[in-house]
Amino acid sequence: MRLVIARCSVDYAGRLTAHLPSAPRLILVKADGSVSIHADDRAYKPLNWMSPPCTLKEGDDDVWTVVNKAGEKLIITMEEVLHDSSHELGVDPGLIKDGVEAHLQELLADRIETLGDGWTLIRREYPTAIGPVDILCRDGDGTTVAVEIKRRGEIDGVEQLTRYLELLNRDPHLAPVKGIFAAQEIKPQARVLATDRSIGCVVLDYDALRGIEDDKLRLF
Amino acid sequence: MRLVIARCSVDYAGRLTAHLPSAPRLILVKADGSVSIHADDRAYKPLNWMSPPCTLKEGDDDVWTVVNKAGEKLIITMEEVLHDSSHELGVDPGLIKDGVEAHLQELLADRIETLGDGWTLIRREYPTAIGPVDILCRDGDGTTVAVEIKRRGEIDGVEQLTRYLELLNRDPHLAPVKGIFAAQEIKPQARVLATDRSIGCVVLDYDALRGIEDDKLRLF
DNA sequence: ACATCTATCTCGGCA
DNA sequence: TGCCGAGGTAGATGT
């Protein structure tokens, strides 16, 4: 990783055109060839960047040009270099996450009877023309149920599930299909909309689901 | 801006919990108090971060703790500092952009006849109870048309336009109101949904619209 | 403060 | 490869 502090101006021409007037900034050149330009505020988003794969060419005239395959260009005009150092970091072992939607889906699919006695899984990520349904299952009566899972349940999620239900109910092999909106937290507006559309709401307890899963594993 | 290269492990506890095992990384501490941790790849997204406003406390035991108002925590355990330098950058003048959705809307409103002969603009940002319609206009037959503009046309945009159409069609002064979904790029699923709802799809050519605009300006 | 919407979104997954 | 959905989305804008 190369760290350069320099007064520079920057031009980006790609998905949009953008310009940064001359000012002192941090320029990061990483081992994968990517380049990013940071001001002295904001943790997350660089002022300007070029994602890998891309190539950096340092011209004789203190103009750096970064290009990628799509023809996007980042042109950095160096006016005064204040710091320039390089460091070997090696490959990062990466982030270990916990508590995201994919995990909730796994946990609930593995313990679908949490939703009611006699419920059985048809499949996770059930494919439709407008995208996959998180979980398709059957309730105790054998009625098909589409489950939409969110970490935070908002109106968008109810709309999404409504579209799936409309589509699934056109399939005579599946119809009638009921809907369940499952989330760790359900916003009041989302609950009202779901209820109005006869969609059931279930608040998921992540720790409890994981506990159940742990108990299951302990049996083996 | 402070640049620290260090072997460290990191724990985040907040909206989720995440852990970074020990490895050499870049730690950026910016003038606004924000902190970000970068591996030697990827231009855009840090491995971990804390957005401002937040406060960093460097403990005696080489443990740095960053907290924000919401109680989220970032804990950096420093194991070996390989580089540590600070630099005064000042406030950045900021990015000047061109070619975003607002601009597309201006361009299309100024050249509404792109959509068809005899089309006329009623107004941009036509206000409704559920938000402004990007463009309201009339087609060659005098029928009212609501236009939703996106840079990239996806399902959400079609849903949004559908809600507007439903509302506008309740107004006897306007009804019947047709819908046009206009974007630089329209995803297949969005097109399917739009077509199913009798909403027209138009792919906008930004450069062509700008070219027309340039031609217009040249007349004056 | 909160809600809504955009983004050079980035990123991962799956067809 | 393209398409789709999630994100600690972040960041901007309007109420």
UniProtKB/TrEMBL annotation, chains A, B:
The name this protein goes by in its record: Endonuclease NucS
Functional summary from the UniProt entry: Cleaves both 3' and 5' ssDNA extremities of branched DNA structures.
GO molecular function: endonuclease activity
InterPro entries: Endonuclease_NucS (IPR002793), NucS_C (IPR048301), NucS_N (IPR048302)
Family classification: Belongs to the NucS endonuclease family.
CDD domains for the chain: NucS-like
Pfam families: NucS_C, NucS_N
DNA-binding in keyword set: yes
Known EC number: 3.1.-.-
Key words of the record: Cytoplasm, DNA-binding, Endonuclease, Hydrolase, Nuclease
Residues in Endonuclease NucS N-terminal PH-like domain copies: 2-93
Domain Endonuclease NucS C-terminal intervals: 100-220
Keyword Cytoplasm among UniProt keywords: yes
Organism: Streptomyces niphimycinicus
